[in-house]
Amino acid sequence: MRSIVVATKNRGKLKEFKVMLSDIPVDILSLCDFPDIEVEENGKTFDENALIKAKKVVQLTGTAALSDDSGLEVEALGGRPGVHTARFAGPGAGDRENIEKLLKELDGVPAEKRKARFVCCLCFALPDGRIFIEHGYLEGFITFEPKGTMGFGYDPVFFVPELGKTLAEATLEEKNAVSHRARAMQKMKKHLLQFVKSVFGSGGAAIEDSGI
Ligand SMILES: O=c1[nH]c(=O)c2ncn([C@@H]3O[C@H](COP(=O)(O)OP(=O)(O)OP(=O)(O)O)[C@@H](O)[C@H]3O)c2[nH]1
Ligand SMILES: [Mg+2]
């Protein structure tokens, strides 16, 4: 079977991955296809968490796994929420609560001191034990209020100077042109293609044609 499992339950990430991987001749599964798989993200760094997710999923599914551990580092908060970005406002918190907490913590902080960056660590784990890790970053500023309805997570409060708007005001194509995830994926694609070529050999022609 020509497939890889994207080791995420985050539908926002998955939507972005599907577009980014559309030029690679492989079926994309996700943890939505394996609802029984639970992964405890107890690493201290993005790299550790990405490794934990990819290793567990390749082990349980026997299929090559691509994981993403990502988060927001805010300069005025000393790099927080960092690896705790998904659960910043508490274990059951959703995007709205997380954004509220972030804006509250930055109350009174002027525009020029609201610098932040998104970090993405991608980990690709193969059934033969090989592991590849790549990183991507996106610099920006935290706004004073949410703007836009697209994307997910903190997108409505993350202003990107090179786009002149928040990530939630950007189309999926615009976000994928600059995002931390897309930048990490750009580097990861060579490993993904190498894997597809070696395992699925007959897809070679299509891969050569894809121009990557
Ligand atoms: O506005 C955002 N735009 C992005 O592009 C983005 N990428 C990551 N994030 C936030 O960082 C957490 C990562 O946590 P995370 O890597 O553990 O993911 P997750 O728990 O949501 O899913 P999974 O992949 O672990 O299943 C996520 O929940 C989001 O809140 C983003 N927010
Ligand atoms: Mg997570």
UniProtKB/TrEMBL annotation:
In its UniProt record, which GO terms are filed under biological process? Answer: nucleotide metabolic process; purine nucleoside triphosphate catabolic process
Q: Where does substrate bind?
A: 8-13, 70, 152-155, 175, 180-181
Query: According to its UniProt record, which cofactors does this protein need?
Result: Mg(2+)
Q: Under which main EC class is this enzyme filed? A: hydrolase
User: What keywords are assigned to this protein?
Assistant: Hydrolase, Magnesium, Metal-binding, Nucleotide metabolism, Nucleotide-binding
Q: Name one Pfam family in it.
A: Ham1p_like
Could you tell me what reaction this enzyme catalyses? ITP + H2O = IMP + diphosphate + H(+); XTP + H2O = XMP + diphosphate + H(+); dITP + H2O = dIMP + diphosphate + H(+)
Per the record, GO CC terms?
Answer: cytosol
Active-site feature positions: 69 (proton acceptor)
One of the record's GO molecular function terms = metal ion binding
Entry note: cofactor = Binds 1 Mg(2+) ion per subunit.
- Binding-site residues for Mg(2+), renumbered to this chain: 40, 69
Q: Does the keyword Repressor apply?
A: no
Q: What is its EC number?
A: 3.6.1.66
The protein's matches in PANTHER family, at most eight in alphabetical order, are given as:
INOSINE TRIPHOSPHATE PYROPHOSPHATASE, INOSINE TRIPHOSPHATE PYROPHOSPHATASE/HAM1 PROTEIN
Oligomeric state and interaction partners are given as:
Homodimer.
Q: What does this protein do?
A: Pyrophosphatase that catalyzes the hydrolysis of nucleoside triphosphates to their monophosphate derivatives, with a high preference for the non-canonical purine nucleotides XTP (xanthosine triphosphate), dITP (deoxyinosine triphosphate) and ITP. Seems to function as a house-cleaning enzyme that removes non-canonical purine nucleotides from the nucleotide pool, thus preventing their incorporation into DNA/RNA and avoiding chromosomal lesions.
Member of which family? Belongs to the HAM1 NTPase family.
Q: What is this protein called?
A: dITP/XTP pyrophosphatase
Q: Which gene encodes it?
A: rdgB
